[in-house]
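Write out this protein's structure.
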Amino acid sequence: MVRRNSDIEIQLPDAGPTPLSDTDSLTDVEMISDETILNLPPHIAARFYRKSSKARRSSSSRRSSISSLHSHASAGSPSADHIAQHLRRTSILESRKARLADRALHAEKVRLRAALAKAATRNLQIEERALAAQQARERLLADITAKCEDQVKRAKKKAEDQRDKKAAEEARLRLEMTEKFAEAEKRRAAYQTHRRRRTSSLPATEEKKMSKEVMKSITEDAAARQIQRVWRTHHAKMVMGQFRTLNLSVDRVREMSFEEVGALLSSGELLDTMTKVLRLCGLQDMEGGPLGERGAVRTFLSSYLIVTHPKEVLSSNGDQEQDLISKARELLVVFDQVTALLSSGCCSPSVITADLQTLCESHNVFFSAFHAWKSHDSTVLIEIMVAQFVELELIWQTVKNDKAGGAAEDYRQGIRQNQVLLLARLKRLAGPERHMELIRDSLKKAKREKRRAASKQAIPRSAEAAPPTTEVLTESMTSPLSESFNNVDAAVFQELDKQRTSPHERFTKILTPLPENRELVHELLVNKEFKIEEAPYTEPRRQIMKQMCETMRTSVEAGHGTNWTVAMATVIQDRLLRSLQRGNSLYVIISEVLDPKLVQGQCEAGTFSYDNFFEFMNNILPRLCAPYRDPVVKAYIEDTSGDAIDRLARLMSIIDLLSLDQTNFMIQLAAPQLIEEAPGYEQRTFDRGVADGSISLEKTHRFWRIHRKIIVDEMKKRDPEGIQGEPHPAAARVYAQGLTDTVFSNALVSEDLIPETLSLDRRRLERIHARAFQIVATASILLTAKNLLKRDARSQWKTEADRILSLDFNEISADRVQSILQSTHPMPPSASAQLAGTIKRVLSPVATACLAASPQLVVTTETSASEMPSHSETIPSFVDPVARLILSRLRSHVLSRLSASSANERVRATTTASQNLAAAGMPEFVNEVGKLVEELEKVREVDWLCHGGVYEGLPPLQPSKMQITHLSDLTPPSQERTWLTAPHPTLPLLATCSSDKTVRIYSLTNFTLLSTITGGHKRSVRTAAWKPHIEGESVLATGSFDATVGIWRRWDNYGNAAAEESNEDEADDEEWRFAVLLDGHDSEVKSVSWSASGMLLATCSRDKSIWIWEDLDDGDNNFETVAVMQEHGGDVKCVSWHPSEECLASGSYDDTIRIWREDLDDWGQVACLKGHEGTVWFVDWEREIEGGSGPRLLSCSDDKTVRVWKRQVQASSEPGALASASTGIPSIIRPAGGDEIWEQEALLPKAHELAVYAVAWSKTSGLVASTGADGRIALYQERILESADASGAQSEWTLLDVKDGAHGIYEINHVAWAKRADRGVQEEEVLVSTADDGSVKVWTIQ
């Protein structure tokens, strides 16, 4: 039988070899039998070929099977039966193998799919595990490193301790050994002295033979060495003998005084002897050479001082000093041992080499320690000197602002001298470069410490226990700080804004010390040390408390004191508990003692005592207030004057201060985080405001457009031919121009002038403006005084300037200023009178500017219109020419410094500031102007940081198609203010009204003065108007501040060339005839106007009335009063007649426009136009248009707007009613038209930043011009838009051009359209403007 691979072959006697079934064997077994027939034992055969216990049924299928055939073939043979069973089993096993193979293949596929699924995340998991392992490894390494460092430190310390112990033990053993050697030497010396002579044991002959042999064995070199050895021993004995005579020991030096020791150690004999001793010992200095220098010897001798007198030698008792003392003591111990051996005479230096080596080591260690201590001691000296320098500087910073008595100057001289000496010494000790660095660093550190100490003094004691975290801050102050850390929906912001507009919210804002969110973070950006000032917060509360005390006293007298007591206790409890945390002991005490219910019960029972209440508050307040408030609290406690209400008022003032300190402390805690988040917060808040419409960029656009145009015009003037192309000024330059013009204008800093991005800096800009006015006023006073005394304008009057600037300009007097100057610079009476006039002129604008910049409690009161000042009185501006010049130069100087773009330009502008200001007449104000520039630079920096994107997103300036171009000035001008210009209706003439009581007639042909009307009025001539429709004669009506109206006549021949050429001089010399004086108004006449027919003259006055006069034209210049209307509630500023109808329009101080018509036999109001929010300064009518509903009306106001009004057509039962109004039918037979409806048709684009004083509607081109207090002329055009609906065409007003600074820095009072024509030239329309400077300018539209 052969078995391979689990296959069994069985050979039978009646059959060939047949394959058999597999077995369970796992190995290959070979069993060979040639012809042997294997008959299985019965028990084995039963195991493999067991028959079924059931009887098998015979069937055709079973019979046809292989096993059946075999069974039939071998029926009756047991082996055949076995073979059949074997074959069946073999087939079954084969099928099972196939199934197992399929299953294995399927399992492999499943395994591959699982492997692919895991492969995607395996790398990530590996990386995460690697990263985690790396981090764990780093942490483990860090822990191991820390532990190793600790172990190394402990090991080093232990090694040092062991080394010190070992050194001490060696020193002790060496000392004992030395003592033993010394004792042995003594015994040997004694033995040699007392011993008997040794006799020779040899015969004499032998001794002689031996000596001869010894003498023969010594050579010359050996003899020389022996002699040298003997000489060194002798020299050592001599040196040590000299040392012994000095008697220098530690015990002796310790018994001597420090001065005696110093004298001993510095003696020449001691130094020489010690030099020899140290050389004998073989000591060397640290550089390796022999110890021969006196300095090294003194270093060695200093060890005696260090050991015996450490307090006098060493500056401190630190570790380094203790180490130096121990090293010196070890050195002296070893030195005493060596000197003892050398002094004995039995030991030469060559014998005690080990001891000398120990001495050298100890000397080297001491020398190194000594020099380390010496360098440290010099460092300490340097630090002391630097501290002295810093202390002197801090003293100077404290007293430098004290101008009284010259104390600052005395301190300055003494301090500077001492600082110079300290600098010289520091330069020698620390070096020429390092000493200044040390001083600078120390000054910075001292200033920081000073600020830190001051801030600690300002921390309330109630806040010391609270953790200084932002979380506590935001929890304790939910509003308004918390918003800087949280995002709030826009709807919530809008609701908060609505609440802020309520009176209660405004009142609460006044009483709340903490500003709004935007304002707070903005102030922190500008100033990191921002804190709420005391006066603006406490003053309103003091006024309110004063009124409450009066009310309380009245209520107490009426028997209602209990309610007030309970209310005050409630308020005090609430305000005190705000500064404390819940659970604090003080919080519990205050809650219990000031419980409103408890106080009310005590009041009702009659047991409440104000004495006990105030005693309780006296105990509580010192435990709550900041340390620097202790004097104020102590003064309150000691002040027991007045009744209980007065003491309550003082108590509320103290609580106000505590609340203010608490708020400032919390701002200080939150400042770092707020400053970090402030730019982003401001950007988000500003963008949100722009998005929801609460913030408009109109003023920002106007600010940018106006000042960019100013720079562009200036650049075009420098490049008139346009060689460099279209100007594109840098954004920084435009911003600097706008910021400078806003702050340094000759007027108040109006809110309309400030862009929305700078709205939070309005108060700051007002303060800078007020300070600039103070500088300008002081500089103009000093410059005037220098000129009067004929002094150099560049000379510095620093003391006088500082004294004037230190005064309160709100309460300053001219005599006070003049006394300051005359105390140091006496002047004659004439010069003093001129200076007094200058002082009076410049102080009033400064006082107004300072009043506008100071925060005030707003109290609303009703004031009559007649009591309100006019615009010329309320706007502070310098009228003194010197002050205007100084202001202009200051503006230019600041602009040049702000416009510096590079670092080199800024440095150059700063370094040359003193020269430029001296040339400008302000040499005393270099520091003050520098502070203004620094503050403006900080404002610009913060604004660009937060709103730079707003400016970058502004649209570029579009060039206008039409521009206002200056043509000429009318000469000569008036020397005083010119109010109005009236163009002649038919001739190229102009009549100008001036404050010098005259009317000037100019020619528009050659722009020269033709004649002057004088003598008719006693005060300023405010207005004038030409009478229309008159031939050969010019009639002019003038109105004056003397409450009269004058009528002037003159014959003219203009247009007759021959007559004009022949009688030109004669015509020019002809005077105007004063025809009649109309008297009736009670106050200043503001405006006059002729009707279209020339028969009626309307006048208006400050007395709130309008008079209509009728020219009877009877040849006698008679006028009759037709009507007097007094419906206006304030000054009537202007009147203007309809271009074709007898319809009059008037504008008034009461913010209204009224339309007047004649109704049967009297004049009455037919319409009242309301819409303006300020005084209506001027009205003008549109030209008559055929087929229209009537000309429209144009008006301008103090609210900086220009509006167009239109009359609405009414359906009337009488069709001819309206038609008759324009037919010229006499008014006496015209039926009553009733009231008219006028509506605002258009609001022209805003172009003015201040009040608009005049408008003019061109009757030729339809253009509209406006001007006002900002010195600007604006030009508008109406464009017709086609409409698809039935309403017809619509119009749109556009701003064509704006001429800034048309009259320089002066306000423009009037603008008018006029016609002019040169000889042989076609007639053209020009624009004429008049201003406060007295000039009249003519402009063309191109």
